[in-house]
Amino acid sequence: MATRITYKFKNQAKEINFAYDKFHDIYEAVAAAEGIDLTKYLMMEQQIAMTSKGSSAVKDFRDKEFARFGFSDIYYHKDDAKK
Known about the structure:
Layout: E1 2-9, E2 12-17, H1 26-33, H2 39-51, H3 56-69, E3 71-79
Antiparallel strand pairs: 1-2, 1-3
């Protein structure tokens, strides 16, 4: 089963293959594809997760930071091989 990610980086549409054995989530995969270092972002995300109640604060932080990096329209696509 193949998986793909489509996204826009600085308003340019792109598509990459994705595997969970290489990346923790789709956001790490798109950042790696564009050569963006997420070290500081991941530390801040962890701090927000430890201090917030619920996942909405982490999701809000992630959405705003990736928009600031230049990403938009990040989607995960699963291609089922039909037999």
